[in-house]
UniProtKB/TrEMBL annotation:
This is Metallo-beta-lactamase domain-containing protein. GO terms for molecular function: protein dimerization activity. Coiled coil: none annotated. The chain crosses the membrane at residues 18-35.
Length: 488
């Protein structure tokens, strides 16, 4: 899932919550003078957990989450409503629900965790699982490097806890850390309840990253170990939520811990390349990973978001459908490229056949088409010489508006809208607004066109990210219109 939630609690208005952090650290700091190193570490962790719990509760209240909330699918806004509680999946398998699930497998020689959730929810998830078993955590397996899967690692891990992840985990974590300010701004556009970057307190216990795996597995590699008579297999499965994806398999019970391998919802069309921006996710590697997992014959799939899926036959059929859908979109895109179709033509033309139909609230077929195209052929589409130079079309919009005249362009935009061509309306409106940012007619047309697209998204594929983007643009447009109307 997303790194968007890692900044959830950072807001200067939450003075009381932040004071708790300061007080907890001061108290812990005073005690460290009188206790040994191990005890000091314990005191510090407990103080941080108390502070985190207060901040996490405030964060949940801020965006409307409550203990009675439900999440129907894996959007960030939906998942924060999910109550934190323990579900028993099997005799020795327990799942602490939340934005990201924390899954515990108990054994007579210590426990194994799969993913550690979002840091803001760590105190409650940790307490919930410790109420089931307070045995030491022998191993933590991290499905990938996103913040809602690794956030609680340092709090769940003991001195001797082993951490297993993919060979690419450290590299993926590195670039996400380096680009955190840039990605944060993109994410905040989609999730406006996030505070501004410069308003966040820089609290060490809430920072993303800094995890160093003790053992790694490579692509399509298996690492097996046995603990307390329970056999565990960690498998490298790239191409899903990133290059560093792993899953965990319990062969004796036929339980697959999938992380985000299938996305937050199973089954669904995967996010072959996420709109919010990350490294490319390779489609054929994902198909190979699905081929790698299907022969296991999983009877239970336990994801790191939402609830488990049961039933070998249905799980196998759904995995096959996901695999064939990705293969189909990939092959149709490649065939279209070879036949001379443009990327935009293929985005319009390629649809899943009925037998491969999947929900697209997370990944979207037309975006996958464009991602596959760019993955193979990169940014230069051989369509215009201007693609080669750092002079975007927007730089001539104001001059075009001056020559064509705003009145004629507004009329053209309105006609496009009447014809049902909302995107063309937006193209023309952007030209007008480049010359006249306060043109109320153009802004009103922009608002109407965005509303048409939002209505289509909400009543069509219901893709979360498309909906959040359109809502953010509508909010921006409304604010600009209000600003104009309030002028003297």
């Amino acid at each position: 899932m997303i790194n968007t939630l890692q900044g959830l609690a950072r807001n200067r208005g939450w003075v009381k919550s932040l004071l708790l952090v300061v007080l907890a650290v001061l108290v812990a700091g005073g005690l460290w003078l009188y206790v040994d190193e191990d005890a000091a570490r314990d005191v510090k962790k407990k103080a941080e957990l108390v502070a985190l719990e207060a901040i996490g509760d405030a964060a949940t209240r801020r965006i409307g989450g409550d203990s009675d909330g439900e999440a129907s699918h894996g959007s960030a806004v939906e998942l924060i409503k999910r109550p934190i509680e323990v579900q028993q999946v099997a005799e020795n398998v327990y799942m602490a629900t939340g934005v990201g699930n924390v899954i515990m497998v108990t054994t007579s020689e210590g426990n194994v965790l799969f993913d550690t959730g979002l840091v803001l929810q760590t105190p409650r998830q940790l307490a919930a699982l410790q109420a089931v078993s307070d045995a030491p955590i022998h191993t933590i397996v991290l499905s990938h490097s996103h913040a809602d899967h690794i956030g609680g690692t340092r709090f769940f891990a003991g001195q001797d806890t082993r951490i297993i992840a993919h060979k690419q985990f450290s590299e993926e974590q590195r670039y996400l850390m380096e680009l955190e300010p840039y990605q944060y701004q993109r994410n905040r556009t989609l999730f406006p309840w996030m505070p501004a970057w410069d308003e966040r307190p820089d609290i060490a216990m809430m920072r993303y990253g800094g995890i160093e795996p003790d053992l790694t597995v490579d692509d399509w590699e298996r690492y097996s170990f046995t603990l307390g008579g329970v056999e565990f297999v960690v498998l490298g499965t790239p191409g899903a939520e990133g290059a560093d994806n792993v899953v965990m398999w319990l062969p004796q019970q036929k339980i697959l811990f999938s992380g985000d391998f299938f996305g937050p919802q199973f089954p669904q069309f995967p996010n072959v390349f996420t709109m919010r921006g990350e490294k490319v996710r390779k489609p054929m590697e994902y198909v190979k990973s699905l081929d790698f997992l299907m022969p296991l014959g999983a009877e239970i799939v336990v994801p790191s978001h939402l609830d488990p899926t049961y039933g070998q036959a249905q799980i196998g059929a759904d995995m096959q459908r996901i695999r064939d859908a990705v293969q189909y979109v990939h092959d149709q895109t490649v065939a279209g490229m070879n036949s001379g179709r443009t990327v935009y033509q293929l985005m319009q033309e390629i649809k899943l056949p009925a037998e491969l139909d999947l929900v697209q609230n997370h990944g979207k077929v037309d975006w996958a088409v464009r991602s596959i195209w760019d993955y193979y052929m990169t940014w230069f589409h051989f369509e215009s010489t201007t693609e080669l130079y750092p002079v975007p079309a927007r730089e001539v919009y104001a001059d075009l508006a001056a020559v064509a005249g705003s009145e004629g362009l507004v009329s053209l935009a309105r006609n496009y809208l009447l014809q049902g061509a909302a995107v063309k309306t937006l193209h023309v409106v952007e030209v007008v607004l480049a010359a006249e940012p306060a043109n109320s007619q153009a802004l009103a047309l922009r608002q109407q066109a965005l509303s048409v697209l939002l209505n289509a998204a909400e009543n069509g594929l219901q893709n979360d990210y498309e909906i959040y983007w359109l809502q953010s643009r509508l909010s921006d447009t409304a604010a600009r219109l209000d600003s104009i109307s309030s002028r003297p």
